[in-house]
Automatic annotation (TrEMBL):
Source organism (scientific name): Salix suchowensis
Keywords associated with the record: Chloroplast, Hydrolase, Lipid degradation, Lipid metabolism, Plastid, Transit peptide
Protein name per Swiss-Prot or TrEMBL: Fungal lipase-type domain-containing protein
Family: Belongs to the AB hydrolase superfamily. Lipase family.
Lineage, uppermost ranks: Eukaryota, Viridiplantae, Streptophyta, Embryophyta, Tracheophyta
Residues in Fungal lipase-type domain copies: 162-319
Primary location class: plastid
Length: 443
């Protein structure tokens, strides 16, 4: 089952919900919510073990490489740019493509200071044989590839390759979304892995091409893999990261691409050196079965899912046959488990709804607005109280058994955490101390 950090499981923690068109959360525990967001990211980064830098996969305490909630918002805004730049005017010459050129895209959508440069536009072709009025079956613009500029590299501490995908807009795409049968991915010709299965509609959108078209447009997959290979080769020798972001259907394509890159080893620079591959999923559906999830984890693909608990898309496909129905009593696996869909990665559940505008439950703008509403000054007092309680509890435990070394270690660890709380990340020194405390408390 995909990891999940549930806000409702935290004591004195309220769900955040939109109750009116004002888009203001009715919960006042924004500091705690932000802290839960930080803890969720930490769990995601550790993979059940060490605390790591999300972008490099290595332990790090450098401020320029630490991951924060601001980065989640930034990747969400990259996806928003896809929607704002997509031309849906049937009378336009750019119908179903991007309204702007690659050099002006970010400037036109108000992201001129993003620090990234678009290198390629991506087109996808739904393999739908059902004739739909006013809906051509040719490839339409689905997203773009961008890379951080030299100035952004100095700020981020790495060269970031970002690939973003918009969600479902056209009728053929909606039809592809409802092709919910599982099909073997078979993306690696040298090892097809027939047990790894994904939703056939998403796979079709990812792999279908227009080889017989006069423009010779390749599949979404071919376009992406060639560009990723080119950029990785071009910036070989630099600190690299590959970040993929998508909303709704776009998050499914992002996850398929992440799996594809890792399975083919396009992110492998050496025997023990892989470019980290990270997926930011906003309101994304399930994509594949348990074997797909397990293989993504084996390959080191990191997935952070931001999902509204009221968003029906996040519960599809596999409303019944999903990760919750694979195993009986936690021990016995049902025969149909290979046909069950499973979410991949760690989920940060949000909770918002607007009676006047029910569609907001899946709207990307609502997701980003909620993430933005938590202020740093609101969370600082909650963090201080939390750390004070932690120090008091640990120190009292150490004093009771007269263990001066443990007492000193506890004080040093909490002070270190407190001094670095703005980055929401721990290094190996702090982790080692915290592990010792955990073992002591459990024993």
């Amino acid at each position: 089952m995909a990891s999940k950090i549930s806000m409702s499981n935290i004591p004195a923690m309220n769900h955040v919900a939109y109750s009116s068109g004002s888009m203001v959360p009715r919960s006042h525990s924004s500091g705690q919510q932000k802290l839960v967001l930080a803890l969720a990211v930490l769990v995601w980064l550790t993979g059940g073990g060490r605390f790591k830098d999300v972008t490099t996969g290595r332990a790090s305490s450098s401020p320029c490489t630490l991951f924060s909630g601001r980065e989640i918002i930034r990747y969400g805004e990259f996806v928003t740019a896809c929607y704002e730049a997509f031309d849906l005017n049937p009378k336009s010459k750019r119908y179903l493509t991007c309204k702007y050129g690659k050099k002006s895209l970010f400037r036109e959508v108000g992201m001129g200071n993003s620090g990234y440069e678009v290198t390629k536009y991506i087109y996808a072709t739904p393999d739908v044989n059902i004739p739909i009025q006013n809906e051509p079956s040719c490839g339409r613009w689905i997203g773009y590839v961008a890379v951080s500029s030299d100035d952004a590299v100095r700020r981020l501490g790495r060269r970031d390759i970002v690939i973003t995908f918009r969600g479902t807009v056209t009728n053929p795409e909606w039809i592809s979304n409802f092709m919910s049968s599982l099909a073997p991915a078979r993306l690696d010709p040298n090892n097809p892995r027939p047990e790894v299965k994904v939703e056939s509609g998403f796979l079709s959108l990812y792999t279908s091409d227009e080889s017989d078209n006069k423009f010779g447009l390749g599949s979404c997959r071919e376009q992406l893999l060639s560009e990723v290979s080119r950029l990785v080769k071009r910036y070989r020798g630099e600190e690299l990261s590959i970040s993929l972001a998508g909303h709704s259907m776009g998050s499914s394509l992002a996850l398929l691409l992440a799996y594809d890159i890792a399975e083919l080893g396009l992110n492998r620079l050496g025997p023990k050196l892989d470019v980290p591959v990270t997926v930011f999923s906003f309101g994304g559906p399930r994509v594949g079965n348990s074997s797909f999830k397990e293989r993504c984890e084996e390959l080191g693909v990191k997935v952070l899912r931001i999902a509204n608990v009221n968003d029906p898309i996040t519960k599809l496909p596999g409303v019944l046959l999903n990760e919750n129905f694979r195993v009986f009593g936690g021990r016995y696996e049902f025969p149909w488990s290979c046909s069950c869909y499973e979410h991949v990665g760690v989920e940060i559940p949000l909770d918002f709804f607007n009676m006047q505008n029910p569609s907001c439950v899946h709207d990307l703008g609502s997701y980003i607005s909620l993430l933005k509403c938590f202020k740093r000054e609101d969370v600082q007092k909650d963090e201080e109280d939390f750390l004070d309680r932690a120090r008091e509890s640990i120190l009292s435990r150490a004093l009771n058994i007269n263990m001066e070394p443990l007492k000193n270690a506890a004080s040093n660890a909490v002070n270190l955490v407190q001094s670095r709380r703005t980055e929401f990340l721990m290094d190996d020194t702090i982790l080692g101390l915290m592990n010792s405390f955990a073992l002591y408390i459990l024993l």
